[in-house]
C-alpha cells in the first residue's frame, strides 16, 4: 500500500530532472501520472533541454513502479495544448487529485489561490529548492557561467556542506504535501535548500 494509491497527479516538466523525480516518486507511492514536457530545444536556452527519449524513459520508470501514465509533448506556455493533455489524462484515468508544476512557482499567486480554494478543500503550497543535481544545473554551460561571475558564485552557496540538493529530496517534500500526511497544510512555502536562504 502506498500513500497515494488510487490518486492521479498532473506534473509539468516531467521528462527529466525534478519533474521525472516527482513523477517516479509519486508513482512508487501508488499514483498514476498525467505529464507534459516540451521535449525540444529553445534557442534562448544555453543548456540541452529534454528530448522525446527522455519522456519515454520517464514513462518506462513510472511503469516499472507499477503505475500507468499518459505523458505528452506540450509547451506549458500553450494553454490549449496544456488543457488538451490534461483533459486526455483525466479521461484516461477518470479524475485528477494533484498538480505539481516543476520549475514554476509564484508565492503571492500561491497564497491567493490557497485562500480562494480552501472552501473547496483544495490545498495550495510551494516548494523552493536551491540548485538541484539535475541537467538544468549540471551541464557544460552552468559551470563556466558561474566561474565568469565569481560574486554570484560566492553568494550562491548552501549553508549545509552540499553543493547541490538531490531531486529526490524535493520529491519527498512534495510527497508529504500531496499525501494525507500534509492534509491540513495549505498556503505555505517549504524550502528544500540546504540552508541557502538562511
TrEMBL record:
Kindly list any coiled-coil regions of this protein: none
**Xref: InterPro entries:** NAD(P)-bd_dom_sf (IPR036291), SDR_fam (IPR002347)
Reading the lineage from the top rank, the first entry is Bacteria
Keyword set, alphabetical order: Oxidoreductase
**Does the keyword Oxidoreductase feature in the UniProt annotation?**
yes
Q: Which family does it belong to?
A: Belongs to the short-chain dehydrogenases/reductases (SDR) family.
Instruction: Cite the PANTHER family for this sequence.
Output: 3-OXOACYL-(ACYL-CARRIER-PROTEIN) REDUCTASE (AFU_ORTHOLOGUE AFUA_6G11210), TROPINONE REDUCTASE-LIKE 2
Q: What is this protein called?
A: SDR family mycofactocin-dependent oxidoreductase
Source organism per entry reads Pseudonocardia ailaonensis
